[in-house]
Amino acid sequence: MQHVDIAIVGGGIVGLTLAAALKDSELNIAIIDKSPCYQVLADRPTARVSAINQANIKALQQFDVWPHLQQDRANSYTAMHVWDKDSFGDIHFSCDEMGSDTLGVIVENQALVNALAQAVEAQSNVQLVTAGIDRVLAGPNQTMLMLDNDDVLSCRLLVGADGANSFVRKQAGLPITFKDYEHTAIVANVKTDEPHNNVARQAFTPTGPLALLPMAEPNVCSIVWSQTPEQASSLMALDDDAFCHALTAASNSVLGTISLKTERAAFPLTMRYARQWAKDGVVLVGDAAHTIHPLAGQGANLGMQDALALAESLSSLSAAGKDIGLYKHLRSYERSRKTEATKMIAAMDGFKFLFDGNDPLKKLVRGIGLSATDKLTTIKNAFVSHAMGL
Ligand SMILES: Cc1cc2nc3c(=O)[nH]c(=O)nc-3n(C[C@H](O)[C@H](O)[C@H](O)COP(=O)(O)OP(=O)(O)OC[C@H]3O[C@@H](n4cnc5c(N)ncnc54)[C@H](O)[C@@H]3O)c2cc1C
């Protein structure tokens, strides 16, 4: 049986960010994932992408992850254009207004996971284990993990970074609240007639938002089209030509005619929120603790910030010779990150409520709101600054 200080279950963006952020600590870490973290990328970009904000990019640069990122699978975006299809509301953000050369980066999720995996593999305090978990036995001073390759691992702190349906969260009996957003997100990569010019675009339609995220190729975007489940099913049932026709119309032909570059995939969207994020010997990060609507592209960003906050807390505890597994020592992490997640969930609910449907009053409010914000530099800069994670 092997002992480590920290066992992180889940080698996705968040679990790996936590390990990378602990690179200078004395703590021994095992990352356990049922699939190998590093996976050779397909020749053509995949449609699962995330818009990573400036705050997290800075952290990835600081932890030497950035040089490992395959540059042709990531693209900086320099401006955003958001409009309401059903009113006169329209807003433009540009990095120039913020004195920055980028607002963030659109990156394929697997490309980011690969870069993180390569960086943590080079750390002497981390080992990557490919295995599932059969059983978790929690004791007062350590937790034992029975792996499905017959190995046994003991740890002082078990971190659940194992995504929305977290096994660790369930095993630890940490309760969640959840709500069906009554939206399904359709994702795909598309080719557009007009170049995207590194602008991230989002149209709010009465039945849900459509994001066009600029990829490295000048005429390729990744779409996230959130619709009611019924509409999403109908769109998924259309043949490629009819789907692209509907997509071009939903985008107001802002980039001309659109054609598909990849298959479409559909993701039902659920808000989840762990009411308790930690207990003695266990703590949650990322989607294991919260999932939110992707309309503002903040889920992975929020999770990465959890990882950075937890790493800071664990490094300080370890340096002070304190027990990293005690709930009383994990509470400040839990308190601060729960507050951030709650704010984000409330903001997503507010946006979804305001932009859903054809209610004339809501149309007026969003028309005036977007246009006024576009003209009020201070408020606009505060929005952009928040989106950049600054
Ligand atoms: C359509 C869509 C678009 C999105 N766009 C954005 C965006 O633009 N920007 C953004 O910030 N966020 C976005 N998000 C959210 C983002 O994708 C997630 O928040 C993020 O990927 C969560 O990362 P994670 O590491 O917490 O979990 P995951 O990515 O789910 O990783 C969990 C890992 O745990 C492993 N695992 C699970 N169970 C076990 C087990 N029992 N044993 C061992 N290993 C296990 C899995 O193999 C996986 O590797 C989007 C989400 C959706 C649905």
TrEMBL record:
Metabolic or biological pathway = Cofactor biosynthesis; ubiquinone biosynthesis
Q: Name one Pfam family in it.
A: FAD_binding_3
- InterPro entries membership: FAD-bd, FAD/NAD-bd_sf, Ubi_Hdrlase_CS, UbiH/COQ6, UbiH/COQ6_monooxygenase
Which BP terms in the Gene Ontology apply to this protein? ubiquinone biosynthetic process
State the UniProt keywords alphabetically: FAD, Flavoprotein, Monooxygenase, Oxidoreductase
A GO MF term: FAD binding
Source domain of life: Bacteria
Q: Does the keyword Oxidoreductase apply?
A: yes
What Gene3D superfamilies is this protein classified in? FAD/NAD(P)-binding domain (3.50.50.60)
Question: SUPFAM superfamilies per the record?
Answer: FAD/NAD(P)-binding domain
Which cofactors, if any, are listed as required?
FAD
The record's annotation in PROSITE patterns points to:
UBIH
GO annotation, cellular component aspect = ubiquinone biosynthesis complex
Domain FAD-binding as annotated: residue spans = 4-345
Subunit note: Component of the Ubi complex metabolon, which regroups five ubiquinone biosynthesis proteins (UbiE, UbiF, UbiG, UbiH and UbiI) and two accessory factors (UbiK and the lipid-binding protein UbiJ).
Protein family membership? Belongs to the UbiH/COQ6 family.
PANTHER family, per database record: UBIQUINONE BIOSYNTHESIS MONOOXYGENASE COQ6, MITOCHONDRIAL (PTHR43876:SF7)
| Official protein name in the record | 2-octaprenyl-6-methoxyphenyl hydroxylase
List the taxonomic lineage.
Bacteria, Pseudomonadati, Pseudomonadota, Gammaproteobacteria, Alteromonadales
